[in-house]
Amino acid sequence: MSDGRASVAFIGPMGSGKTSIARRVAKRLDVPFADTDAMVVAEHGPIADFFSEHGEAAFRRVERDAVVDALTRGGIVALGGGAVVTDETREALAHHHVVLLTVSERTIRSRIRGAKRPLLNAADPIAEWSRIAAERRPIYEALADVTFDTSSGPLRLVVDSAAEWAADRLGIAIDRRDTA
């Protein structure tokens, strides 16, 4: 590892592809992968249920713990879209490499349709997504070391670019001719 930082974290708004892209990057680099939302679900049950029973503040606490645990293990970590709203999570990310995935509102329409996302239980989920994404954008941008847009084009191209970037940060040699 070039500078001692062992993790690459993927952040971004809901539906930007953090889990699917980060998982493929980890596989390509042959490093551990963790999805903090999946970690929370494994320990506490469905996120929507946890939200409705305990509220957002309690969820952010268990989410923060999952993020810190995953980052400590090293490798590639996909964070939930709102994980960055807590100070402790932002502080933990400061010691790791951070990839921001962005996505257009036009593209998000098809990605979140019918999805069970507790913060999008509004009359107009797309408008709510846009509001949340705009509110968090400055945090995402402040934390990001690099940004990739997932709105168009083959997913493979984003995976290839992110894998090359992550490999350089983690000191991993990869065959640049490989495809994900």
UniProtKB/TrEMBL annotation:
Highest taxon above the source species: Bacteria
Chain residues that bind substrate: 37, 60, 81, 136
Note describing how the cofactor binds: Binds 1 Mg(2+) ion per subunit.
Sorted UniProt keywords: Amino-acid biosynthesis, Aromatic amino acid biosynthesis, ATP-binding, Cytoplasm, Kinase, Magnesium, Metal-binding, Nucleotide-binding, Transferase
Compartments (UniProt record): Cytoplasm
SUPFAM superfamilies assigned to the protein according to its UniProt record, in alphabetical order: P-loop containing nucleoside triphosphate hydrolases
Binding site for ATP: 15-20, 117
HAMAP family registered for this protein in UniProt: Shikimate_kinase (MF_00109)
Function: Catalyzes the specific phosphorylation of the 3-hydroxyl group of shikimic acid using ATP as a cosubstrate.
Name of the protein described by the UniProt record: Shikimate kinase
Species annotation: Microbacterium faecale
The gene coding this protein: aroK
